[in-house]
UniProtKB/TrEMBL annotation, chains A, B:
Single Gene Ontology MF annotation: D-lactate dehydrogenase (cytochrome) activity
Identification of the protein by name: D-lactate dehydrogenase (cytochrome)
Top EC class of this enzyme: oxidoreductase
Keywords: FAD, Flavoprotein, Oxidoreductase, Transit peptide
Ranges where the FAD-binding PCMH-type domain occurs: 31-208
Protein's organism: Sphingomonas kaistensis
UniProt cross-references to InterPro entries, sorted A to Z: FAD-bd_oxidored_4_C, FAD-bd_PCMH, FAD-bd_PCMH-like_sf, FAD-bd_PCMH_sub2, FAD-linked_Oxase-like_C, Oxid_FAD_bind_N, Vanillyl_alc_oxidase_C-sub2
GO BP annotation list: lactate catabolic process
Cofactor list: FAD
């Protein structure tokens, strides 16, 4: 098998310990599980050939993008081949008039936006990490501006996918809408590499708005911050970005990113539109903030200030984990209907107050989605157990509010039991689909659910 | 079997010819295919019981909403039970703060909006017919304001579904976003009753905007009208509605709905937002229209005028078919990337000019989606053949432009060959999913594809 792989991809096959560890470890608290080999693919045809070989030998194949997922999604539970797509970085086509582009799965979101900038376009979805577009499609990722522009569910128009038997399909045409059969695009989005390997992605783009204004605003209470967001949305204000960071998270960010924000619960806002429309949005939202105990808006007027602000937000996870040197991170990820958000965050905050483990709250508050980031001492197993417990309370609380155990990170290894608690018999249907599309269970086996 | 059904549902079982015909005919050119029986279900549990019975006897069960679909989607190809959900009209919950509601599948879009109006909310998706929300989910329907608010793909948050073995599942929680496993919600949306029977639907709602302005604008050329729309979208104007009607369609509408619009290609616009923002949008779009050979905007300022305008648009299909008394209708439904739309409509218009069959063009131009409505003499088989031919040319043209054979009507019986031409091997995956979820092929058999 290894010989045959070598004949296919030459020196892009790696079996050394270091490379296998790099592909068999995780950003978070999961112990490493190494693949037997790592292959860097360069074309769709090559991906198909590797999958056919793995199918022949019944060897697992685990697609790998940037490896930034946080639920152990890329770990090689049953060994096999980690198929790294990060060298598939071709921008296949940018259709400026149609506001879409097609890229290979290994293109990263920051590189895509650099490529697009000159054309007045941008791709909105921005997880904290500089993830690959293929990986983001596979976890149904979102980010700071999903509140306005949607998640990968809304962003993906079409996919090129290598199926478990090594066939290459395209899930949809490039038209904005279609009723042509089952929605395979949305089925692969969020399937975490368990149903097929995405090699090309067509995504929607947006025009860089005439005016972009970003600001922070501190609040006396978390409730006041959340209420400001909920009321803004209810008034139809199309907030482009609205992130919540609690006092602990602001302290971490100040330290890590050298900012000087007041160490209070803070909203990070961004407004997009024409000059006039942005002014109107700001007028409304700042009035609401004032009514809800918010302070003055601190404007990040220049592009560099604005970029620094969002860079700090994107690094908030590392800022939080590094509240303790040498700590490991764990990010929870519940999402609830926004009417329940203040309550959900408030109760969570009380749980955190009762614990000695450093933890921050931050979230995509316009979507009802928030994270607790724990900074865990790796040498103290009691801490991991305690975090597991607090997380369990959070998830149960969110489910009781008709929310989900994962707003954007996916199931991976970490949330399989919660998936069943959340969706019950529906998980049986997912399993049937998995068995139908990958009967030999070679595609990222052991993820989302046991076969 | 019929006895057992009768024991289940009592006098809500019908085997009379008239009722069977009502459920086995179509709005369009398909010949009737009657079910053996019609059952009116009243609860999810009853739907599940009927499905279990049909599964036991291996009898087809065809879900039926309002029967307004246009590709023969509800015809009983293999007989069986037409399961009519139109009496399941309970509004289960309206969550005003979360902008969503849960309704039984038989609720119709107009009734839902009447229910919501007092709460300042609306449900945007509006096919011409007063369809059921379950039927609309099942065809992935859209309407005049999909350009702003999306289609049923974006509108549906969660579904309650009875599966082929009579289990009841819920596809998702009510949170706005989730990465919890495969996207079953989107899989059932657009599956035309072939994978499960939807009994409840949770949909997103929107706030009725502070200001709504509607207008019509006539153009010298179709190209000028389409360019106005494309340029508006490229400038980021959030058009709430923008519909194109060609000269023939305007003639038909004037006659049918007693309007007096100039008989030229016309755009029907609607703008939503705050007073100020709507004024700004109108300023920009009317300037673009003028540059593209558009006339003055004719405003439908009062609510009644506006409603009359959209009523006329919604009845445009009947207006077109009735260009000839006693004619039958056929509505085509291609959708292309908007950069190709003017060309696609232009070439289609040339095909129509070469034919003697009355035909109109109208469409959801902001989505790249348009229809030709033919008014066919039922006693002249040559006409049906000619329309088939023109439609084939349209679909091939759309596919060559990376478009789809159906923007919103679905595959049903009418587009099965086109589905394969459009998506090739991907249809094999759809088949595998169908076999996995409905191994005995009892759910609306013979639709979308042969088993
Ligand atoms: C600091 C930090 C901040 C983050 N913030 C966010 C956030 O705001 N929002 C958010 O959604 N996530 C966030 N994440 C999580 C992570 O960035 C996302 O899950 C991202 O989508 C993973 O992309 P990737 O390229 O790293 O994929 P990987 O981690 O390499 O893979 C993710 C999963 O997808 C599969 N996969 C990868 N590529 C393909 C492919 N081409 N075809 C099929 N399957 C494939 C893998 O097998 C795996 O199951 C954050 C992570 C970090 C470390
Ligand atoms: C004048 C006119 C204008 C139209 N304009 C538009 C338009 O602008 N946009 C558009 O998208 N469509 C349009 N249509 C088509 C039609 O209205 C849509 O296809 C609509 O979604 C059908 O809904 P229905 O309730 O009538 O479903 P039905 O016709 O009863 O059923 C449609 C399909 O869904 C299945 N089904 C129905 N209910 C369920 C359920 N509860 N669970 C599972 N499967 C179910 C049926 O088996 C069938 O396959 C128009 C039709 C007409 C006659």
């Amino acid at each position: 098998m290894v010989d045959a792989l070598g004949r296919l991809v030459g020196d892009r096959l790696h079996v050394g310990e270091a490379m296998r560890l790099e592909h068999g470890r995780s950003e978070t608290h999961f112990a490493p599980m190494l693949p037997d080999a790592v292959v860097f693919a360069e074309t769709t045809e090559e991906v198909a050939a590797v999958v056919r070989l793995c199918a022949e030998y019944r060897v697992p194949v685990i697609p790998f993008g940037a490896g930034s997922s946080v639920e152990g999604n890329t770990l090689a539970v049953h060994g096999g081949v980690s198929l790294d797509l990060s060298r598939m970085t071709r921008i296949v086509a940018v259709n400026t008039e149609d506001f879409d582009c097609t890229v290979e799965a290994g293109v990263r979101r920051e590189e895509l936006n650099e490529h697009l900038r000159d054309q007045g376009l941008f791709f909105p979805i921005d997880p904290g990490a500089n993830a690959t577009i293929g990986g983001m499609a596979s976890t149904r990722a979102s980010g700071t501006n999903a509140v306005r522009y949607g998640t990968m569910r809304e962003a993906v128009l079409s996919l090129t996918v290598v199926t478990a038997d090594g066939k290459v399909i395209r899930t949809s045409r490039r038209a904005r809408k279609s009723s042509a059969g089952y929605d395979l695009t949305r089925l692969f989005v969020g399937s975490e590499g368990t149903l097929g390997i995405i090699t090309e992605v067509t995504v929607r783009l947006h025009a860089i708005p005439e005016s972009i204004q970003a600001a922070t605003c501190s609040f006396e209470t978390i409730g006041g911050a959340v209420d400001t967001v909920v009321q803004s949305i209810q008034l139809g204000i199309p907030l482009a970005r609205v992130e919540i960071l609690d006092d602990m998270q602001i302290r971490a960010v100040n330290r890590w990113s050298k900012l000087d924000l007041p160490e209070l619960t803070t909203l990070f806002f961004e407004f997009h539109g024409s000059e006039r429309y942005v002014a109107e949005q700001i007028e409304t939202v700042s009035a609401l903030a004032a009514e809800n105990g918010g302070g003055e808006f601190r404007w990040a007027s220049r592009t560099e200030e604005r970029n620094a602000l969002w860079k700090a937000r994107h690094e908030a996870y590392y800022a939080a984990v590094n509240l303790r040197p040498g700590a490991i991170g764990w990010a929870t990820d519940v999402c609830v209907p926004i009417s329940r958000l203040a309550e959900c965050i408030g109760e969570t905050k009380r749980d955190l107050a009762a614990s000695t483990i450093p933890a921050t709250i931050l979230g995509h508050v316009g979507d009802g989605n928030f994270h607790v980031v724990f900074s865990i001492d790796p040498d103290n197993p009691a801490e991991l157990a305690e975090v597991k417990d607090i997380n369990a309370r959070m998830v149960r609380r969110a489910l009781a509010m008709d929310g989900t155990c994962t707003g954007e990170h996916g199931i991976g290894l970490g949330k399989q039991d919660w998936l069943v608690e959340e969706l019950g018999d529906a998980v049986g249907l997912m399993r049937s689909i998995k068995r139908a599309l990958d009967p030999a269970n070679i595609l990222n086996p052991g993820k989302v659910f046991a076969f």
